[in-house]
Amino acid sequence: MAEKKKYSRRYCKYSEAKVEFIDYKDTAMLKHALSERFKIMPRRLTGTSKKYQEMVEVAIKRARHVALIPYIVDRKKVVSSNSF
């Protein structure tokens, strides 16, 4: 029988910093919630609280609409694979 892995407690980055509002123009703050392919990371991986996760999602969607953040990134640009 396999043992359960114990993970360290994840803390909400935004509530520790006492952020009141997450602005869509602050792309440096939004990068924390995005994967390397610019997908929105789930709460269970980032440790963000529900209140801030909703604000992050809205801010990322607004930033994508204004073209500050790309919607998708081509896999070929992310992973440098051998040429075929």
TrEMBL record:
One of its GO terms (molecular function) is structural constituent of ribosome. GO terms for biological process: translation. It holds the Pfam family Ribosomal_S18. The keyword Ribonucleoprotein applies. Signal peptide: none annotated. The keyword Cell membrane does not apply. GO terms for cellular component: cytosolic small ribosomal subunit. Keywords: Ribonucleoprotein, Ribosomal protein, RNA-binding, rRNA-binding. InterPro entries: Ribosomal_bS18 (IPR001648), Ribosomal_bS18_sf (IPR036870). It comes from the Bacteria. Part of the 30S ribosomal subunit. Forms a tight heterodimer with protein bS6. Binds as a heterodimer with protein bS6 to the central domain of the 16S rRNA, where it helps stabilize the platform of the 30S subunit. Belongs to the bacterial ribosomal protein bS18 family. This is Small ribosomal subunit protein bS18.
